[in-house]
Amino acid sequence: MTRTTSTTRSSSKGGQFRKGTTLEMVRLACPDANQASTISESFGLPVLDSNGIRELHERLIMETADSLGEGLGERAMQIHLQRIVGAYVGSAHGAGQFYSRAVTEARDATAKSANDARDEDVGGPVGFDSAAQRKREFAADMGVQSHALRMAAEGAVAAYAVVIGETWKPFERTVENPGQTVDRKAADLQMAALG
What we know:
The chain is mostly helical. The chain has seven helices and two strands. It has helices at 2-13, 23-29, 33-43, 50-68, 74-113, 131-164, 182-194; strands at residues 16-18, 173-175. Residues 1-14 have low confidence and may be disordered.
């Protein structure tokens, strides 16, 4: 038993960090205000008030911190806001990745529909859009949505800096044995227990 405990300690000291999602990753995946505006205008979608979304979420986080100020100490507030801001950033990044996949599918479908010899990509009956058009419209919707979530994340990150007094960074947790599954770890511990 002592041998297993010491092995666990030594591996956690030399463990690798699992990188979290950063705001920069969100900015690379999600459209900026100009691109979102172009998408909205091109597809007849609502033009978002990007600054309004950002400012609202910044105020929301700051007001949340104010209301919790008496009940939480400095460190507890930092941990709480770290998690909340991380959720905003993670949500925006997921939406940005989904948007990127939708754009790829729309490009592929549009390129295929340009080939006149392909019957399956010909436009639908009168009154129905082609598959390529539906994919383009879906990608446009995802672009506007991911932009909205990007702005919410940017507002949350800005509020974190004001409340905590330092730039938000994603939580990085230590991975003891990268690539090793939970089942494998459990099997190793069981075999060590058997001697």
